[in-house]
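Reply to dn_fold:

You asked what the input looked like. This is it:
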Amino acid sequence: MNDSTKPLMTTLPEIVDDLILERVRQLLEVPANSPLKESDLKKLALNTKRLSDYFTKKVEERPEFYLKDDRLMAAYLAYFLPSNLLKVNKALSELMLHPAVDQFTDCGGKLSVLDVGCGPGTATLGLINFLAQLEQREGPLSLNLMAADNTQQCLDEASLMPRRLWNAYSEKLPENRLADLTVRTVKLDMSKINEGLCGERFDLIILANSIGEILADNSRVDMGCDLVETLMEDHLEARGGMLIIEPALRDSSRKLLMIRDELLARGRSSVYSPCIIQDKCGALDNPKDWCHEGYGWAMTSLIKEMDKRTGFNKSQLKYSYLVLRKDGMTLQDILPADGGENFRVVSDLLIMKGERKVFLCGQRGRIQLGRLDRDLSDANRQFDEIRRGDIVEVKGIYQKGEVLRIDKEGSVRVISSL
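and this is what came back:
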Protein backbone atom coordinates (compact mmCIF):
# COMPACT_ATOMS: atom_id res chain seq x y z
CA MET A 1 0.00 0.00 0.00
CA ASN A 2 1.49 3.36 -0.99
CA ASP A 3 1.28 6.54 1.07
CA SER A 4 -1.74 7.89 -0.82
CA THR A 5 -3.89 4.92 0.17
CA LYS A 6 -2.94 4.71 3.82
CA PRO A 7 -5.86 5.44 6.19
CA LEU A 8 -6.02 8.72 8.03
CA MET A 9 -4.49 8.67 11.51
CA THR A 10 -6.20 10.03 14.61
CA THR A 11 -4.41 10.79 17.86
CA LEU A 12 -5.78 10.95 21.39
CA PRO A 13 -4.55 14.20 22.98
CA GLU A 14 -2.14 13.71 25.87
CA ILE A 15 -4.41 15.70 28.17
CA VAL A 16 -7.20 13.14 27.63
CA ASP A 17 -4.88 10.14 27.96
CA ASP A 18 -3.50 11.49 31.25
CA LEU A 19 -7.00 12.03 32.64
CA ILE A 20 -8.08 8.48 31.77
CA LEU A 21 -4.94 6.92 33.26
CA GLU A 22 -5.39 8.92 36.45
CA ARG A 23 -8.94 7.60 36.86
CA VAL A 24 -7.83 4.02 36.11
CA ARG A 25 -5.25 4.31 38.90
CA GLN A 26 -7.94 5.51 41.30
CA LEU A 27 -10.25 2.61 40.45
CA LEU A 28 -7.38 0.13 40.89
CA GLU A 29 -6.27 1.88 44.12
CA VAL A 30 -2.84 2.67 42.68
CA PRO A 31 -1.10 5.76 44.16
CA ALA A 32 -1.30 8.88 42.01
CA ASN A 33 1.42 9.19 39.33
CA SER A 34 2.68 5.67 40.10
CA PRO A 35 3.22 3.18 37.26
CA LEU A 36 0.84 0.25 37.03
CA LYS A 37 2.42 -2.88 38.46
CA GLU A 38 2.51 -6.26 36.75
CA SER A 39 -0.41 -7.43 38.90
CA ASP A 40 -2.44 -4.38 37.86
CA LEU A 41 -1.76 -5.02 34.18
CA LYS A 42 -2.75 -8.68 34.53
CA LYS A 43 -6.07 -7.69 36.14
CA LEU A 44 -6.73 -5.10 33.44
CA ALA A 45 -6.03 -7.64 30.68
CA LEU A 46 -8.29 -10.23 32.30
CA ASN A 47 -11.17 -7.78 32.66
CA THR A 48 -10.62 -6.40 29.17
CA LYS A 49 -11.19 -9.94 27.88
CA ARG A 50 -14.31 -10.25 30.02
CA LEU A 51 -15.72 -7.02 28.62
CA SER A 52 -14.88 -7.99 25.06
CA ASP A 53 -16.80 -11.25 25.52
CA TYR A 54 -19.76 -9.36 26.98
CA PHE A 55 -19.80 -7.06 23.95
CA THR A 56 -19.52 -9.84 21.34
CA LYS A 57 -19.90 -13.60 21.84
CA LYS A 58 -21.35 -13.64 25.37
CA VAL A 59 -23.89 -10.83 25.20
CA GLU A 60 -26.54 -13.03 26.78
CA GLU A 61 -24.27 -13.57 29.82
CA ARG A 62 -23.58 -9.87 30.36
CA PRO A 63 -24.84 -8.68 33.75
CA GLU A 64 -27.41 -5.89 33.56
CA PHE A 65 -25.25 -3.44 35.50
CA TYR A 66 -21.82 -4.78 34.58
CA LEU A 67 -19.98 -1.46 35.05
CA LYS A 68 -20.90 -1.42 38.73
CA ASP A 69 -17.77 -3.56 39.11
CA ASP A 70 -14.78 -1.20 39.57
CA ARG A 71 -12.49 -3.74 37.90
CA LEU A 72 -14.63 -3.78 34.76
CA MET A 73 -15.00 0.00 34.86
CA ALA A 74 -11.21 0.39 35.02
CA ALA A 75 -10.80 -1.98 32.06
CA TYR A 76 -13.43 -0.10 30.06
CA LEU A 77 -11.78 3.26 30.72
CA ALA A 78 -8.32 1.91 29.91
CA TYR A 79 -9.11 -0.04 26.74
CA PHE A 80 -12.48 0.86 25.21
CA LEU A 81 -13.10 4.49 26.17
CA PRO A 82 -10.09 6.10 24.36
CA SER A 83 -11.06 4.80 20.92
CA ASN A 84 -14.80 5.18 21.50
CA LEU A 85 -14.59 8.84 22.46
CA LEU A 86 -12.75 9.61 19.20
CA LYS A 87 -15.59 8.13 17.15
CA VAL A 88 -17.72 11.27 17.51
CA ASN A 89 -15.17 13.43 15.65
CA LYS A 90 -16.14 12.67 12.08
CA ALA A 91 -19.89 13.05 12.54
CA LEU A 92 -19.48 16.29 14.47
CA SER A 93 -17.08 17.63 11.85
CA GLU A 94 -19.59 16.79 9.11
CA LEU A 95 -22.24 18.82 10.91
CA MET A 96 -19.99 21.83 10.36
CA LEU A 97 -19.75 21.27 6.60
CA HIS A 98 -23.26 22.67 6.07
CA PRO A 99 -23.25 26.50 6.21
CA ALA A 100 -26.79 26.59 7.58
CA VAL A 101 -26.18 24.14 10.44
CA ASP A 102 -25.22 25.98 13.61
CA GLN A 103 -24.74 23.43 16.41
CA PHE A 104 -21.29 24.70 17.34
CA THR A 105 -20.74 28.05 15.64
CA ASP A 106 -23.95 29.99 16.24
CA CYS A 107 -25.71 28.60 19.31
CA GLY A 108 -25.53 31.82 21.27
CA GLY A 109 -22.49 30.49 23.08
CA LYS A 110 -24.66 27.94 24.92
CA LEU A 111 -24.85 24.38 23.67
CA SER A 112 -27.29 21.94 25.30
CA VAL A 113 -26.60 18.21 24.91
CA LEU A 114 -28.36 15.03 25.98
CA ASP A 115 -26.25 11.87 26.18
CA VAL A 116 -28.64 8.87 26.31
CA GLY A 117 -27.19 5.63 27.65
CA CYS A 118 -24.14 7.69 28.52
CA GLY A 119 -22.15 4.96 30.26
CA PRO A 120 -19.15 6.58 31.94
CA GLY A 121 -19.49 9.67 29.73
CA THR A 122 -17.62 8.36 26.71
CA ALA A 123 -19.37 10.38 23.99
CA THR A 124 -19.46 13.48 26.19
CA LEU A 125 -15.69 13.29 26.66
CA GLY A 126 -15.40 13.01 22.89
CA LEU A 127 -17.61 16.07 22.45
CA ILE A 128 -15.56 18.14 24.91
CA ASN A 129 -12.36 17.05 23.20
CA PHE A 130 -13.86 18.03 19.84
CA LEU A 131 -14.98 21.45 21.11
CA ALA A 132 -11.56 22.11 22.60
CA GLN A 133 -9.95 21.60 19.19
CA LEU A 134 -12.52 23.77 17.41
CA GLU A 135 -10.84 26.90 16.07
CA GLN A 136 -13.63 28.27 13.85
CA ARG A 137 -15.88 29.22 16.75
CA GLU A 138 -15.85 32.82 17.97
CA GLY A 139 -16.17 33.66 21.65
CA PRO A 140 -16.42 31.41 24.72
CA LEU A 141 -18.73 28.42 24.78
CA SER A 142 -20.86 27.09 27.62
CA LEU A 143 -22.00 23.47 27.63
CA ASN A 144 -25.18 22.34 29.37
CA LEU A 145 -25.04 18.55 29.56
CA MET A 146 -27.61 16.03 30.71
CA ALA A 147 -26.22 12.49 31.10
CA ALA A 148 -28.85 9.73 31.18
CA ASP A 149 -28.28 6.10 32.10
CA ASN A 150 -29.84 3.35 34.21
CA THR A 151 -26.70 2.66 36.26
CA GLN A 152 -25.69 5.00 39.06
CA GLN A 153 -22.00 4.10 38.82
CA CYS A 154 -22.02 5.16 35.16
CA LEU A 155 -23.77 8.41 36.04
CA ASP A 156 -21.15 9.11 38.70
CA GLU A 157 -18.36 8.69 36.13
CA ALA A 158 -20.31 10.68 33.52
CA SER A 159 -20.43 13.58 35.96
CA LEU A 160 -16.85 13.29 37.23
CA MET A 161 -14.82 12.68 34.06
CA PRO A 162 -16.30 15.43 31.83
CA ARG A 163 -15.84 18.00 34.60
CA ARG A 164 -12.19 17.03 34.97
CA LEU A 165 -11.55 17.19 31.22
CA TRP A 166 -13.39 20.50 30.84
CA ASN A 167 -11.37 22.02 33.66
CA ALA A 168 -8.11 20.67 32.27
CA TYR A 169 -8.81 22.15 28.84
CA SER A 170 -10.07 25.44 30.34
CA GLU A 171 -6.73 25.91 32.09
CA LYS A 172 -4.78 25.08 28.93
CA LEU A 173 -6.69 26.93 26.21
CA PRO A 174 -6.13 30.63 25.48
CA GLU A 175 -8.82 33.29 25.60
CA ASN A 176 -11.04 31.29 27.92
CA ARG A 177 -12.70 29.54 24.95
CA LEU A 178 -14.51 27.08 27.25
CA ALA A 179 -16.57 29.25 29.58
CA ASP A 180 -18.48 26.90 31.87
CA LEU A 181 -19.88 23.38 32.05
CA THR A 182 -23.11 22.31 33.72
CA VAL A 183 -23.55 18.55 34.19
CA ARG A 184 -26.79 17.00 35.33
CA THR A 185 -27.47 13.30 35.59
CA VAL A 186 -30.75 11.42 35.40
CA LYS A 187 -31.38 7.76 36.09
CA LEU A 188 -33.52 6.98 33.08
CA ASP A 189 -35.97 4.17 32.44
CA MET A 190 -35.97 3.88 28.65
CA SER A 191 -39.60 2.78 28.68
CA LYS A 192 -40.52 6.09 30.37
CA ILE A 193 -38.25 8.57 28.59
CA ASN A 194 -40.65 11.49 28.70
CA GLU A 195 -41.12 11.16 32.45
CA GLY A 196 -37.37 11.27 33.05
CA LEU A 197 -36.62 14.17 30.70
CA CYS A 198 -39.61 16.30 31.70
CA GLY A 199 -40.11 17.90 28.29
CA GLU A 200 -36.65 19.44 28.11
CA ARG A 201 -35.18 20.06 24.64
CA PHE A 202 -31.57 19.94 23.44
CA ASP A 203 -29.44 21.15 20.54
CA LEU A 204 -27.73 17.78 20.23
CA ILE A 205 -28.78 14.29 21.33
CA ILE A 206 -26.21 11.48 21.34
CA LEU A 207 -26.83 7.73 21.52
CA ALA A 208 -23.39 6.09 21.45
CA ASN A 209 -23.32 2.28 21.70
CA SER A 210 -26.74 2.57 23.31
CA ILE A 211 -29.41 1.30 20.92
CA GLY A 212 -27.90 -2.18 20.80
CA GLU A 213 -27.84 -2.41 24.60
CA ILE A 214 -31.29 -0.87 25.05
CA LEU A 215 -32.75 -3.31 22.54
CA ALA A 216 -30.53 -6.23 23.54
CA ASP A 217 -33.49 -8.46 24.37
CA ASN A 218 -35.59 -7.42 21.39
CA SER A 219 -34.40 -7.05 17.81
CA ARG A 220 -37.56 -5.36 16.54
CA VAL A 221 -36.62 -2.41 14.37
CA ASP A 222 -39.85 -0.56 15.14
CA MET A 223 -38.87 -0.33 18.82
CA GLY A 224 -35.60 1.35 17.87
CA CYS A 225 -37.47 3.74 15.60
CA ASP A 226 -39.97 4.54 18.35
CA LEU A 227 -37.14 5.36 20.76
CA VAL A 228 -35.37 7.62 18.25
CA GLU A 229 -38.57 9.38 17.19
CA THR A 230 -39.64 10.02 20.79
CA LEU A 231 -36.30 11.66 21.51
CA MET A 232 -36.38 13.70 18.31
CA GLU A 233 -40.01 14.80 18.47
CA ASP A 234 -40.19 15.58 22.17
CA HIS A 235 -36.62 16.50 23.16
CA LEU A 236 -34.70 17.82 20.13
CA GLU A 237 -34.75 21.48 19.19
CA ALA A 238 -36.22 22.24 15.76
CA ARG A 239 -32.75 22.85 14.31
CA GLY A 240 -31.00 20.26 16.40
CA GLY A 241 -29.24 17.05 15.42
CA MET A 242 -29.13 13.48 16.72
CA LEU A 243 -25.96 11.40 16.53
CA ILE A 244 -26.19 7.60 16.76
CA ILE A 245 -23.06 5.44 16.93
CA GLU A 246 -23.04 1.65 16.96
CA PRO A 247 -20.29 -1.00 16.75
CA ALA A 248 -19.05 -1.95 13.28
CA LEU A 249 -20.32 -5.50 13.68
CA ARG A 250 -22.52 -6.81 10.91
CA ASP A 251 -25.60 -7.42 13.07
CA SER A 252 -25.49 -4.09 14.94
CA SER A 253 -24.66 -2.13 11.79
CA ARG A 254 -27.45 -3.73 9.77
CA LYS A 255 -29.91 -3.10 12.59
CA LEU A 256 -28.95 0.58 12.50
CA LEU A 257 -29.42 0.65 8.71
CA MET A 258 -32.87 -0.95 9.07
CA ILE A 259 -33.79 1.69 11.66
CA ARG A 260 -32.55 4.32 9.20
CA ASP A 261 -34.78 3.02 6.41
CA GLU A 262 -37.83 2.77 8.66
CA LEU A 263 -37.32 6.31 9.95
CA LEU A 264 -37.17 7.62 6.37
CA ALA A 265 -40.31 5.67 5.51
CA ARG A 266 -42.12 7.33 8.43
CA GLY A 267 -41.14 10.69 6.95
CA ARG A 268 -40.55 12.75 10.09
CA SER A 269 -36.75 13.02 9.90
CA SER A 270 -33.96 13.18 7.35
CA VAL A 271 -30.57 11.49 7.29
CA TYR A 272 -27.99 14.27 7.42
CA SER A 273 -24.99 11.94 7.17
CA PRO A 274 -23.19 9.68 6.36
CA CYS A 275 -25.68 9.05 3.54
CA ILE A 276 -25.87 11.55 0.70
CA ILE A 277 -29.20 10.11 -0.47
CA GLN A 278 -32.55 9.66 1.25
CA ASP A 279 -33.40 6.41 -0.55
CA LYS A 280 -33.33 2.89 0.86
CA CYS A 281 -29.91 1.63 1.92
CA GLY A 282 -28.24 -0.47 -0.75
CA ALA A 283 -26.13 -2.31 1.80
CA LEU A 284 -29.26 -4.14 2.99
CA ASP A 285 -29.81 -5.78 -0.40
CA ASN A 286 -27.17 -8.41 0.37
CA PRO A 287 -27.42 -10.08 3.84
CA LYS A 288 -23.62 -10.22 3.96
CA ASP A 289 -23.15 -6.45 3.53
CA TRP A 290 -23.04 -3.71 6.12
CA CYS A 291 -21.75 -0.14 6.27
CA HIS A 292 -19.10 1.21 8.63
CA GLU A 293 -16.23 3.62 9.07
CA GLY A 294 -12.70 2.33 9.55
CA TYR A 295 -9.36 4.10 9.86
CA GLY A 296 -6.18 3.95 11.87
CA TRP A 297 -5.36 5.80 15.06
CA ALA A 298 -2.35 6.25 17.32
CA MET A 299 -3.06 3.78 20.11
CA THR A 300 -2.20 4.72 23.68
CA SER A 301 0.67 2.87 25.35
CA LEU A 302 -1.75 1.15 27.74
CA ILE A 303 -3.92 -0.11 24.89
CA LYS A 304 -0.83 -1.45 23.11
CA GLU A 305 0.07 -3.27 26.34
CA MET A 306 -3.43 -4.74 26.60
CA ASP A 307 -3.28 -5.91 22.98
CA LYS A 308 -0.03 -7.75 23.71
CA ARG A 309 -1.56 -9.48 26.70
CA THR A 310 -4.95 -10.31 25.20
CA GLY A 311 -4.10 -10.98 21.56
CA PHE A 312 -6.56 -8.27 20.51
CA ASN A 313 -5.88 -5.64 17.85
CA LYS A 314 -7.27 -2.15 18.52
CA SER A 315 -5.31 -0.44 15.73
CA GLN A 316 -8.44 0.55 13.80
CA LEU A 317 -11.33 2.81 14.76
CA LYS A 318 -14.35 0.97 13.40
CA TYR A 319 -17.97 2.00 13.91
CA SER A 320 -21.27 2.72 12.19
CA TYR A 321 -22.96 6.07 12.62
CA LEU A 322 -26.03 8.06 11.67
CA VAL A 323 -26.79 11.77 12.03
CA LEU A 324 -30.49 12.67 11.87
CA ARG A 325 -32.26 16.02 11.64
CA LYS A 326 -35.89 17.05 11.51
CA ASP A 327 -35.37 20.35 9.63
CA GLY A 328 -34.66 18.53 6.34
CA MET A 329 -31.04 19.63 6.02
CA THR A 330 -28.61 17.03 4.68
CA LEU A 331 -25.08 16.86 3.32
CA GLN A 332 -26.68 16.46 -0.08
CA ASP A 333 -27.45 20.20 0.06
CA ILE A 334 -23.80 21.17 -0.27
CA LEU A 335 -22.74 18.78 -3.03
CA PRO A 336 -21.88 20.10 -6.51
CA ALA A 337 -24.56 19.82 -9.18
CA ASP A 338 -22.59 20.54 -12.34
CA GLY A 339 -22.99 17.29 -14.23
CA GLY A 340 -20.96 14.88 -12.10
CA GLU A 341 -22.23 12.14 -9.79
CA ASN A 342 -21.67 12.36 -6.04
CA PHE A 343 -20.84 9.32 -3.91
CA ARG A 344 -19.81 8.33 -0.43
CA VAL A 345 -16.84 5.93 -0.44
CA VAL A 346 -17.96 2.84 1.50
CA SER A 347 -14.92 0.56 1.23
CA ASP A 348 -11.17 0.69 1.24
CA LEU A 349 -9.47 1.09 -2.13
CA LEU A 350 -8.87 -2.37 -3.60
CA ILE A 351 -5.50 -2.49 -5.40
CA MET A 352 -5.36 -5.30 -7.95
CA LYS A 353 -3.01 -6.20 -10.79
CA GLY A 354 -3.54 -3.57 -13.43
CA GLU A 355 -6.64 -2.06 -11.81
CA ARG A 356 -8.02 -0.33 -8.72
CA LYS A 357 -11.58 -0.67 -7.46
CA VAL A 358 -13.73 0.82 -4.75
CA PHE A 359 -17.32 0.55 -3.54
CA LEU A 360 -19.35 3.77 -3.69
CA CYS A 361 -22.86 4.72 -2.54
CA GLY A 362 -24.99 7.38 -4.26
CA GLN A 363 -27.99 7.86 -6.53
CA ARG A 364 -27.09 4.68 -8.42
CA GLY A 365 -27.21 2.79 -5.14
CA ARG A 366 -24.21 0.78 -3.99
CA ILE A 367 -21.80 0.24 -6.88
CA GLN A 368 -18.26 -0.94 -7.48
CA LEU A 369 -16.22 1.40 -9.66
CA GLY A 370 -12.88 0.56 -11.22
CA ARG A 371 -10.08 2.30 -13.12
CA LEU A 372 -7.44 0.50 -15.10
CA ASP A 373 -3.88 1.56 -14.33
CA ARG A 374 -3.29 2.29 -18.02
CA ASP A 375 -6.14 4.83 -17.88
CA LEU A 376 -4.50 6.94 -15.16
CA SER A 377 -4.69 10.66 -16.02
CA ASP A 378 -4.46 14.00 -14.27
CA ALA A 379 -8.26 14.22 -14.27
CA ASN A 380 -8.82 10.90 -12.48
CA ARG A 381 -5.62 10.81 -10.39
CA GLN A 382 -7.56 11.42 -7.14
CA PHE A 383 -9.11 7.98 -7.58
CA ASP A 384 -5.83 6.67 -6.10
CA GLU A 385 -6.21 8.89 -3.03
CA ILE A 386 -9.81 8.25 -1.95
CA ARG A 387 -10.44 6.61 1.39
CA ARG A 388 -13.38 4.97 3.09
CA GLY A 389 -15.75 7.72 4.24
CA ASP A 390 -14.73 10.32 1.65
CA ILE A 391 -17.35 12.14 -0.43
CA VAL A 392 -16.34 12.28 -4.09
CA GLU A 393 -17.59 13.68 -7.40
CA VAL A 394 -17.11 11.40 -10.42
CA LYS A 395 -17.59 12.24 -14.08
CA GLY A 396 -17.45 9.91 -17.06
CA ILE A 397 -18.59 6.57 -15.62
CA TYR A 398 -19.11 4.00 -18.37
CA GLN A 399 -20.27 0.39 -18.28
CA LYS A 400 -18.60 -2.51 -20.00
CA GLY A 401 -20.56 -5.67 -19.48
CA GLU A 402 -21.28 -5.81 -15.75
CA VAL A 403 -18.27 -3.63 -14.87
CA LEU A 404 -18.41 0.12 -14.13
CA ARG A 405 -15.24 2.06 -14.87
CA ILE A 406 -13.80 5.48 -15.58
CA ASP A 407 -11.34 6.01 -18.43
CA LYS A 408 -8.68 8.63 -19.12
CA GLU A 409 -11.33 11.26 -19.93
CA GLY A 410 -13.23 10.59 -16.69
CA SER A 411 -12.55 12.65 -13.58
CA VAL A 412 -12.55 12.12 -9.82
CA ARG A 413 -12.61 14.91 -7.26
CA VAL A 414 -12.61 14.51 -3.47
CA ILE A 415 -15.26 16.85 -2.02
CA SER A 416 -14.75 15.97 1.65
CA SER A 417 -12.12 13.90 3.43
CA LEU A 418 -12.36 14.13 7.22
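Residues 3-332 form a domain with the Rossmann fold fold (CATH 3.40.50.150).
Hope that clears it up.
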